[in-house]
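Researcher: I'm preparing a figure for a lab meeting and need a structural model of a single chain. I don't have an experimental structure, so a prediction will have to do for now. The sequence is pasted below. Please return the structure as tokens so I can convert it later.
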Amino acid sequence: MFAAPPIMNLTVLRSPEIDRAARFYSSMGLLFSKHRHGSGPEHYTSCVNDFVFEIYPLGSGPSTTGARIGFSVDDVDSVVEMLQEAGGTLVSNPHDSEWGRRAVIKDPDGHTVELLTPPSRDIVVASSRTSTGVVSETHSHGMNPGELDRN
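Model: Understood. Here is the structure written out token by token.
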């Protein structure tokens, strides 16, 4: 008998400039807070749906720039633009692929970041009713439907 497969719940990147890295990832909507565990280094943490994304100082630890990380986003094209403005370097232009709309960018430290808007992504639309937005509907093209849920 097999147990349920493991679910990834933590990714840690190391950066020589954690404030810059946090600003970069914040530009696509991640919310960070600073933490310190005991006498460990101060670092940034973002938690979304029980998934923890942390940015630690590079220090004497190994570099994490060989890692490739990915995010599912509402609109690859607009997120790529925001990340370039925040210091990212475009590796692969936004394009349609078998997995949906996709692009690859490097963060200011050199981590490879894949962005994907799957065809079946539930779109989160900004709302004046809540600070977190509301789920509106799924669109086959995976693009933001606009302000359908605004009053």
